[in-house]
Design goal:
This protein has 179 residues and is α+β, with helices and mostly antiparallel strands. 28% of the residues lie in helices and 28% in strands. The chain has 2 domains: 1-31, no CATH class; 36-178, Oxidoreductase, molybdopterin-binding domain (Sulfite Oxidase, Chain A, domain 2), CATH 3.90.420.10. It is built from 6 helices and 11 strands. The protein has a 5-stranded mixed sheet with strand order 2-1-11-5-6. It has a 4-stranded antiparallel sheet with strand order 3-4-8-9, with no helix packed on it. Strands 7-10 form a two-stranded antiparallel sheet. Helix 1 (2-12) packs across helix 2 (16-29).
């Protein structure tokens, strides 16, 4: 709920306090939306402190489910590629709101078992995306895919350091939401 309220706050911030209140009222009036079940191979599993699930105690996503969410795009330089690279995918905060994440940290794990902890406030403070495409193309495993948590490094000088580069986990497989 905290992530959802934060999301509503960001969306309604330009409308002032009254707009924020109206945004929360409108959100509260909406029925809880059930998370659909994947129809294809699961590419992302989210567990831990979440309120919306679709497979036992987990929220699982296939690529079509992730690509059905609002897509965001940015171009940025990375330490791993030459020049500017274009990424697109859903905002991490949107995915966390969808699963009703309630924790403070995310334990992200890659296909090769690389693990990193990401503070949940990164999703609120920056337009971090779960990239499904790089340079308009799906990302195969051999080129850091199929999912890549990526920060918009060129948008804020604070993001241009090892701490945020390490949090940009490619070949993302799962996220556990913890306190």
């Amino acid at each position: 709920m905290k992530v959802f309220i934060t999301y509503c706050f960001r969306v309604c911030a330009g409308l002032g306090l009254a707009g924020f209140g109206l945004g929360l009222l409108a959100a509260a009036a909406l029925p809880a939306q059930a998370l659909e079940r994947p129809r294809e191979r699961v590419v992302l599993t989210i567990t831990g402190q979440i309120g919306a699930t679709n497979q036992g105690s987990a929220a699982v996503f296939d690529m079509a489910m992730l690509e059905a969410l609002p897509q965001h795009r940015f171009a940025t330089r990375t330490p791993w590629e030459q020049g500017v690279v274009r990424f697109s995918g859903p905002l991490l905060r949107d995915v966390l709101a969808l699963v009703q994440a309630r924790g403070q940290r995310l334990h992200a794990t890659a296909l090769n078992d690389y693990r990193i902890t990401i503070p949940i406030h990164d999703a609120r403070d920056f337009d971090v995306i779960i990239a499904t495409r790089m340079n308009e193309q799906p990302m195969p495993v051999r080129t850091r895919g199929p999912l890549f948590v990526i920060y918009p490094f060129d948008s804020d000088p604070r993001l241009q350091n090892a701490r945020f580069y390490e949090r940009s986990i490619w070949q993302l497989r799962s996220i556990e939401v913890i306190e």
